[in-house]
Write a structure and sequence with these properties.
single chain, 471 residues, mainly alpha, Na+/H+ antiporter like fold, 69% helix, globular
Length: 471
């Protein structure tokens, strides 16, 4: 830009790129507006997940059911020279795409351990104990009902909570839910997920092969080596991450565990932060504002600004913010579409498969709230923990019931627990029914037991939840 051409003020900038056509720009904005509003609703991801599950059920029980099963059993292959790796589409969803889901879970656990509800033992004690009770009791209920024969291996199915659905249900209850209850649910669900991951790694992995662990270890070592060399480009970490995934798969451990481990290894401290960013970009921003630099100078200033922008947030915060929408609105609905399609007409409900279905459903609806409520009561009676301000017995009951929505993780564990198609279909049916009943009960009990908060009380309770260290 030459000296004779003054810089335009912000009000002088055109509202669209020069090459854009106004009618299409307006049409795109009009179309995107309701979508943006929907995605900003807290329960939106749960709604999308529910729609995907409903679509899978309808498709699998329609006249096009053959096409549904044929789609997920269709083979995808990667061929390089004489090397050929072939798996069906369902495998790529469950064992490859779901790694990203577990990677995000691992990062969220890491963040909570660093600066969240799990960073201090006193704050973590109640949700940790509640999560433990909410895992042991459903497994016990399942074993009481379906502990005979081949159905026994499904004891881990009702152990975990689906955080997207659970948070969505609490959001639907509106101002009846104090923020402290949502924080307690999030902390419980994070520990719940960690427990489920441990169960998957120990009990639902195939025969262990030592060489695979060596390869996985090399991948994880590569991640740490790149961190020590100061490599900040996140895409570079895909290479050692893939090595860790391949090694875990070759070792006989479910490959999604690699996603969790890499997530736990992700740095939680920002390089620059907001203050450092402001200092770093002050000079290049001033150069751009002056408008006296050459095209090369403008590009260099923009490069500095972009580089600094990447370092405002920690890698954990940045990656979670980037990947969460893809997981919530892409990977999880795709997983539901691939796994929730239970053909009701083809179910073989013999005594063993019926026990698996009932065990999974009752484990979620009865076992979860029973374990959570009993453990919370025990912790409070012994004086080992106190409830956050604004939380009472009624809130804990609702928390226990809403934690019985086990959809995504329960379906995932069912895939690992049962190789037999009849048992798998029955367990999935039990998960779907149990999660549905838990969701409806949560809404009903929440509306009946919880009173709406007075105006302004929600913000006060939120502040207390963040600053309280009573747990």
């Amino acid at each position: 830009m030459s000296d004779s051409q003054p810089s335009p003020s912000p009000s002088q900038f055109p509202p669209k790129p020069p090459e854009a056509w106004t009618p299409l720009v307006r049409l795109a904005a009009w179309t995107a507006r309701p979508v943006d509003r929907f995605l900003q609703i807290e329960a939106a991801s749960g709604v999308v997940l529910l729609l995907a599950a409903a679509a899978a059920l309808l498709w699998a029980n329609s006249s096009w059911a053959h096409g549904y099963h044929e789609l997920w059993q269709s083979t995808l292959a990667i061929e390089i020279g004489s090397f050929r790796f072939a798996r069906n589409l369902e495998w790529f969803v469950n064992d490859a795409l779901m790694v990203v889901f577990f990677f995000v879970v691992g990062m969220e656990i890491r963040r909570e351990m660093h600066s969240g509800e799990l960073s201090e033992w006193r704050r973590a004690l109640l949700p940790a104990a509640a999560a433990l009770g909410g895992m042991i009791a459903p497994a016990g209920v399942y074993l009481l009902i379906g502990g005979a024969g081949a159905a026994r291996s499904g004891w881990g199915v009702p152990m975990a909570t689906d955080i997207a659905f659970a948070v969505g249900v609490l959001a639907l209850l509106g101002n009846r839910v104090p923020p402290a209850l949502r924080v307690l649910l999030l902390a419980l669900a994070v520990i719940d997920d960690l427990g489920a991951i441990v169960v998957i790694a120990i009990f639902y992995s195939s025969g262990v092969h030592a060489m695979g662990f060596v390869v996985a270890g090399a991948g994880i070592a590569g991640v740490f080596a790149l961190q020590k060399f100061g490599v900040r480009n996140k895409l570079v970490y895909i290479i050692p991450g893939f090595v860790a995934w391949a090694g875990t798969y070759a070792a006989g451990v479910h490959p999604t565990i690699a996603g969790v481990i890499i997530g736990l290894c992700t740095p939680v401290r920002a390089w620059l932060g907001t203050e450092g960013f402001a200092q770093e970009v002050a000079e290049p921003i001033q150069q751009l504002a002056d408008g006296r630099t050459s095209t090369h100078g403008v590009a260099e200033s923009l490069r500095k600004v972009t580089s600094a922008q990447r370092e405002v947030l920690s890698p954990v915060d940045s990656l979670v913010a980037t990947l969460h929408p893809w997981v919530a609105y892409g990977i999880m609905p795709l997983f539901a579409l691939a796994n929730a399609g239970v053909s009701l007409g083809g179910l073989d409900l013999n005594p063993i498969s019926t026990a698996a279905a009932v065990g999974a459903g009752v484990g979620l609806v009865v076992g979860k709230p029973l374990g959570i409520c009993l453990v919370c009561m025990l912790m409070l009676k012994l004086g080992l923990a106190t409830l956050p301000k604004g939380i009472g017995a009624r809130h804990i009951i609702v928390l226990g019931v809403v934690a019985g929505i086990g959809f995504t993780m329960a379906l995932f564990v069912a895939q690992l627990a049962f190789a037999d198609a009849a048992l798998l279909g029955a367990a999935k049916l039990g998960v779907l029914c149990g999660s549905g009943v838990a969701g409806v009960l949560s809404l009903g009990l929440g509306a009946f037991l919880l009173k709406p908060l007075a105006p302004g009380l929600g913000a006060q309770t939120a502040h207390e939840a963040e600053t309280s260290t009573e747990l």
